[in-house]
Design brief:
It is a single chain. The protein has helices spanning 18-34, 46-49, 57-74, 91-99, 105-110, 112-121, 129-132, 134-143, 157-174, 217-225, 246-254, 257-263, 270-279, 284-310, 313-341, 350-359, and strands spanning 5-10, 39-44, 82-85, 149-151, 182-184. The protein is mostly helical. The chain folds into 2 domains: 5-193 and 313-353, HUPs (Rossmann fold), CATH 3.40.50.620; 217-309, Tyrosyl-Transfer RNA Synthetase (Orthogonal Bundle), CATH 1.10.240. The strands form 2 sheets. The protein has a 3-stranded parallel β-sheet. Strands 4-5 form a two-stranded parallel sheet. Helix 3 (57-74) packs across helix 14. The N and C termini lie far apart (51 Å). The relative contact order is 0.13.
């Protein structure tokens, strides 16, 4: 891929947590700093968030700035990355409307991510149409910017596959106009889907099992100490199990050999710690203390940057405003190409108007 155009984003339904960080945020900052891309877009998906919060718009409104603060605190640089607000780009709605004609209801019903999200929200009998068509909306978000690299978590894989299907069908009907996206998953398998602190399959704001990027050191300590480990590991001398052990899943996602040198020098690496735990003689408290130290080492710079940005909230909104203006310009150009390809650019096609005039003479 000669010129990477990167796009990714988050719903503003709450502050971002460490699952977002290892799943996508950390990679975004790495990509930004590597500079190996033509352009990078990161957006706050407020319009999509309203599809299942239609009766609580204030929740979305209040969390817009929370997500923006988390972005900036993690190190996203508005000089290098275009940060924008989804609802401020009306061209996305028009693109999604055209794409709706290219997807069947049964295809949407088969989308694993949609099925899971519907079950999580109890929408089985009354699914909002906007929520149901989320994959189509996401395809519009991606194609509007000709994004070809989408760094997301594993749960978004079916969404990228469906966006690719839409692009291929559009290009097949109307000619090569849109760009096919490619998913970029985290390198670390433990980061693909970080479980909640309670051991549940997914860290979720609604389940209350998150460690937020903006949590204080005291809050992180409380959450780590209450984390799910191995229910059969009652006594230290007993062998412990790694599978389903949330503490070790988090260590897989965050810890490095340097962390052992700094916080637990008795061990050279995580493999040594795992070996000791599985043969017995190592308590959960030692493992949790290591995790706590590692998490706070990662989160402290984020907390400090967030505190600085919180001192100038108008500046944060100005970043979003400028980013949205820049993003809209790109989306408008794409929409113009789409209209041209679909032959609905009636008023700019002077030659066609002449042909029609001659036809009726």
């Amino acid at each position: 891929m000669s010129e990477k155009i990167i796009l990714t984003g988050d719903r503003p339904t709450g502050r971002l947590h460490i699952g977002h960080y290892v799943g996508s945020l950390r990679r975004r900052v790495e990509l930004q700093n590597a500079g190996d891309y033509k352009r990078m877009f990161v957006f706050i998906a407020d319009a999509q968030a309203l599809t299942d919060n239609v009766d609580n718009p204030e929740k979305v409104r209040q969390n817009l700035v929370e997500v923006a603060l988390d972005y900036l605190a993690c190190g996203l640089d508005p000089e290098k990355v275009t940060i924008f607000v989804q609802s401020q780009i009306p061209e996305l709605c028009e693109l999604a409307f055209y794409f709706m004609n290219m997807v069947t209801v049964s295809r949407l019903q088969r989308n694993p991510t949609v099925k899971t999200e519907i079950q999580m929200r109890g929408f089985e009998q009354s699914i909002p149409v906007g929520f149901f068509t989320y994959p189509i909306s996401q395809a519009a978000d991606i194609t509007a910017f000709h994004a070809n690299v989408i760094p997301v978590g594993e749960d978004q894989k079916p969404m990228i596959e469906q966006a690719t299907e839409i692009v291929r069908r559009f290009n097949n009907i109307y000619g090569e106009t849109l760009t096919e996206p490619k998913i970029m998953l985290p390198d670390n398998a433990a980061c693909l889907r970080l479980p909640g602190t309670d051991g549940k399959a997914k860290m979720s704001k609604s389940l209350g099992n998150c460690i937020y990027l903006s949590d204080s050191a005291k809050e992180v300590k409380k959450k780590v100490n209450s984390m799910y480990t191995d229910p059969e590991h009652i006594h230290i001398e007993q062998p412990g199990h790694l599978e389903g052990n949330t503490v070790f899943t988090y260590l897989d996602a965050f810890v490095t050999d340097d962390d052992f040198a700094a916080f637990l020098p008795e061990y050279a690496c995580l493999d040594e710690l795992k070996a000791h735990y599985t043969r017995g003689g190592l308590g959960d408290g030692t493992c949790k203390k290591l995790l706590l130290n590692v998490l706070n080492a990662r989160l402290e710079p984020i907390r400090q940057r967030r505190e600085e940005w919180q001192k100038d909230i108008p500046a944060v909104y100005e970043i979003l405003r400028k980013g949205s203006e820049a993003a809209r310009e790109v989306a408008a150009n794409t929409l113009a190409d789409v209209r041209r390809a679909m032959r609905i650019n009636y008023f700019e096609d002077a030659e066609y108007i002449k042909q029609q005039a001659a036809k009726f003479k």
